[in-house]
Design brief:
427 residues; Helix Hairpins; BirA Bifunctional Protein, domain 2; three-stranded antiparallel sheet; 19% strand
């Protein structure tokens, strides 16, 4: 959510930020709505002041036994009451329209975010590891999984339709091992607090992080008016919704391993084969509630924590700084981590780490009080995948495949796999 006062103070800068994101200028229209709201507020205050003054005059008239004067003043107060109700309704309507417009406007990009239209304009920041050279054609994960007899798309489709997968045996255990390995690393080594949050949330929770009202088609809704979470970012960030956070407690770092649910409404025809883009998947999420002065440092730290997972698994990757046209709605700056998939002979996103500034905090009303100051300031929120478990499984399968179709188990995962060194095909 944007601060209308900031827009009022510098509408040209606001429109320039939207232009960088490929959006039309809207400051003038917002300020027109704001003027209507402020005008109604002024008239309401003036009516209230006159009502208070008239009430005092009624008392004075009655004390002087000026009953006719008192009756006229009482009639005026009654009329003011009706006028005030009408003006308050006008003010509420103006506020609602303004808030509705503000709620659909994306965050403005940071000054260091490159301008661009899509992923082709993203900037390479760094890469790690060398893609393995196979002496044979590398297979994709779905070919490997089906040959192992542990990845079944047909049975999943019979039960649930497209974009679902059934994993069995050691491959199911490998996915579980990946999730546990990640959550252990983030809590034990990087100081994140593990949380087991609700998987279903209400409208206001999704509004706070920016999924609603604009992206409802990408979500699953229940018959009880709950929404299935698309990412644990939603409940983790909302842990501080409506609260004053102690400045000394910042940053607060949360992590969770949860199932996530996405309708993938905008992904028709994309990645329909395999389990790269699923309606249901597991992900380890990282969320930081940070001091505004420290959020950029926290962003770098969070990205490094996600990278450390891939380094420990010895999976080659690269870090991309997203351009203005490729960032998510709530982000002001985003790093995507892309892992090497030899079966596809390309890098694919496995983590996205974003600094949202105070954009989500304004929507959630999440603040902190600076030492020695009376008023509150909005915290900064950050979120990142630490990392997507299903995509990590894909990366391990493709990077650790053997020519006979077996999958070597990375050393970091062997303690979670009971010492198993390789997953062999079912016989």
């Amino acid at each position: 959510m944007h601060d209308i006062k900031t827009i009022r103070d510098n509408p040209a800068a606001f429109d320039e930020g939207l232009k960088r994101r490929g959006a039309e200028p809207i400051a003038a229209a917002l300020l027109e709505l704001d003027a209507k709201r402020r005008s109604a507020q002024t008239r309401r205050d003036e009516l209230q002041q006159r009502r208070n003054a008239a009430s005092k005059e009624i008392g004075a008239a009655k004390a002087k036994k000026q009953e006719d004067v008192a009756q006229k003043l009482m009639a005026e107060v009654a009329a003011i009451k009706d006028q005030t109700a009408a003006v308050e309704a006008e003010e509420r309507d103006a506020c609602a329209v303004l808030d509705e417009r503000l709620a659909t406007i994306p965050n403005l990009p940071g000054a260091d975010v490159p301008d661009g239209n899509d992923s082709n304009d993203n900037k390479l920041i760094r890469s790690w590891g060398e893609p393995r050279k196979f002496g044979y054609p590398a297979k994709e994960h779905f070919d490997l999984g089906e040959k192992l007899g542990m990845m079944d798309f047909e049975r999943a489709a019979k039960m649930a339709g497209a974009r679902f997968t059934v994993l069995t045996g050691k491959l199911a255990r490998l996915e579980r091992a990946l999730g546990q390995f990640m959550i252990d690393m983030h809590t034990r080594e990087f100081g994140y607090l593990e949380v087991n949050p609700p998987l279903m949330v209400r409208d206001a929770t999704l509004y706070g992080t920016g999924q609603l009202p604009k992206f409802g088609d990408d979500l699953f809704k229940t018959t009880t008016d709950h929404w299935l979470i698309p990412t644990a970012e939603v409940p983790l960030t909302n842990l501080v919704a409506g609260e004053f956070v102690d400045e000394a407690s910042l940053p607060r770092r949360y992590t969770a391993l949860t199932a996530c649910f996405r309708a993938e409404a905008g992904a028709a025809g994309k990645d329909t084969r395999g389990m790269l883009r699923q309606h249901q998947f597991y992900k380890v999420e990282l969320v930081s509630i940070a001091h505004p002065d420290k959020s950029e440092d926290e962003h770098q730290r969070m990205t490094a924590c996600a990278e450390a997972i891939l380094q420990r698994l010895n999976l080659p990757y690269r870090v991309m700084l997203l351009c203005t046209g490729d960032m998510g709605f709530s982000a002001r700056k985003t790093y995507d981590i892309e892992v090497w998939l030899p079966g596809q002979n390309t890098y694919r996103e496995i983590s996205s780490c974003s600094n949202c500034g105070d954009f989500q905090a304004r929507r959630m009303n999440a603040r902190f009080r600076r030492a020695g100051e009376k008023g509150g300031a909005f915290v900064h929120t950050l979120n990142g995948s630490g990392i997507a478990v299903g995509r990590a499984l894909i990366a391990v399968m493709e990077n650790y495949q053997r020519q006979d179709g077996a999958i070597e188990v990375p050393e970091a995962l062997r303690p979670y796999m009971g010492g198993i060194e390789a997953i062999e095909p079912n016989v």
